[in-house]
Amino acid sequence: MAKDQTVLFHSTIFGPIHSRRLGVSLGVNLSPDDGKVCSFDCIYCEAGYNAQGKGSTGLPAREKVREDLERKLKAMSDNGESLDVITFSGNGEPTLHPDFPGIIDDTIALRDRFFPQAKVSVLSNSTRIFTPTVARALRKVDNNILKLDSAIEPTMRLIDQPASKDFSVRKVVEGLKQFRGNAIIQTMMLRGEHDGRKVDNTTPEEVEALIDAYREIGPREIMLYSLDRSTPEERLVKVEREELQGIGDLIARETGIPVQVN
Prior knowledge:
The chain has one domain: Aldolase class I (TIM Barrel, Alpha-Beta Barrel). Helices cover 33% and strands 21% of the residues. It contains seven helices and eleven strands. It has an eight-stranded mixed β-sheet. The chain has a three-stranded antiparallel β-sheet with strand order 8-7-10, with helices on one face. α1 (62-78) packs parallel to α2 (100-114) and α6 packs across α7.
């Protein structure tokens, strides 16, 4: 069962907000401010399903992103505000923007000017890591946060619903290996039902497959989290903190990789 949900962010720069994973975060939305553009159609996406459409405003120009970000960072600096991170997320997949590499360069320059201690983070679904210019840009940021929600193909396709039929678990794991030691892998843990099919990536089989994938990828950190906001699929259940921590502890023991649980 799906519920009507629409885009979350109606501007290019939003916040700052307090992120449970990243601290005081200023957001950058490279998708339209009245629609959604994504290469996944995740059943848990807080911005809703892609069926709501791309809207009418289009992707923000690189110049607008730079100008809006500069204006906001200057105002925050002038007001003596604090900032931990500039985070690319928003109403879709940020790396789909054709000027993503240049926008990252602009952002790093502005960060260095106004808040040199702040980090630059990108939340990506990993679908564009095979494009060399995108991969190079991701290597420049402080927190290159890449998605792997399941290492079992049918589960990944059920949860993430990738637009490309060529996208696969094997392909993404191979692609993620290029960032060895320079990536954070983010996994949404959940259970429930979608289109009459059971959803559960917390089973021993699922966790074991994830452990094997994490070992192969070799990220510097793993982020486990569960549902925090309303989702378009109503029959999803949050994994509570105690259980999530138990899964995280097991993964950390088996891989030797730090695991952050949120």
